[in-house]
Description:
CATH topology of the largest domain: Aminopeptidase
Number of helices: 10
Oligomer: single chain
Bound molecules: zinc ion
Strand order of the largest sheet: 11-12-14-13-15-18
Number of domains: 3
CATH class of the largest domain: Alpha Beta
CATH architecture of the largest domain: 3-Layer(aba) Sandwich
Amino acid sequence: MKLLPDQSVASNLRADRNTIYIQRRHHTGFSTGVNKADEYSWFFLLALSGTKNESITLLANMSQADIPTLTRNNSLLFYSTDQINWRRLAVPVLTDSAGLKQYATFILPVTGTCYISNTIFYDYSYLDDYFASFVARHTAYCQKTTIGTSLQNRPLRLLTLSNNANPLDRILLTTGCHPAEPDVIASQAIIDWLVSPPGLKLLTRYQVDVLPLSNPDGFANRSCLTSNGINLYWNFMKDDQKKCPEAFYLWRYILNHPPLLYLDFHSYVHQYHRHPMPYLKDTIAYRGAFTKHIVKQMDRYLIKQSRGFYRFGKLAMWPDSLSRHITQQFNTISYTKYHFNLYEGIPASQTRAVNIFIGLTKLLLRQSINHQHILLAPHGHAILDHSDRWPFTWFYYLPQLLSKSYMFGKSYWRYYRHRNQSHLFR
Ligand SMILES: [Zn+2]
């Protein structure tokens, strides 16, 4: 077995016979804003050349001495010969509680060049061609526009799907914000569904804008950040054309074409203990009782789809995120960061994405909802009403405050009782 460091993504890559050692790659990130550069750089892509059935041991961020300290078996390994078709290596991957140290032994499934990764990292030109050929095959319903270019001059290609010259409204879908997360499979599955008979029916009412690769430089450079270290989710620098053209051009497109609904998918890469789930905003982030009512229905649908799991609050309403800007400025209903878990596999994650899309758009269709109902002036007629005034918001926060104080009080009481019974503190 021979390592191919030029094609690998890892630092301090070395091999001792058939044992491979890797360290996580460190990133400094952009100088301003929250970029979580290190956190989003924890993945590896290992290129090696070997013979089928060779036994390989892999130690990431650890030494042999750390093996007994590993307590979890919940990470995944994938392999590919072309960085297009990825399959899971069905072996246990032992990790520490943070998932940073990873240890596995596996048998090489192929002879020749093989890529091994703890995520699924698709090749950039393959994806770019994939969406271009999709448009070429469906010219009757699908158009491709370049809304701008990335910092390294790669096109930001937007697909517009429609089956009506005057659609009722528009929906925006983005994926590929963090390229090491293979959430681009959501765009692939949803556009495939949209050109099927039930999807075409939806397209007679709503136009769907899809930006499958929102961070093309990240794909090409094999990073979750842009080429100058910006994390597009946490630091969406919409007004800076020079430093963050990826955010600038997308925001400029949104300003001219504000959507009714905005969806964005992500995928867990080493937090495999988490169930696939949505990140939900406070309903009071939206203006108007009607919008709040629709959002509650959508929240309930997403929670049901995720077997009761969800994340709530600040993470979904991050001050510098597109999700917050778009809701604040237009009142657009937005669900960003719906996370897949690769344990489910690609087909199941794609079915999940399509079901989410169908479920949410069904709620819109059932009530023939358009921008007049949801968006703020001048794009619609949504206005501030009693649900935005302090008695309502107060009633909204009060139960949260009470449950927090109850939990805090209860845990302190348990601590206090234990402290007095254990005699440890005397
Ligand atoms: Zn992500």
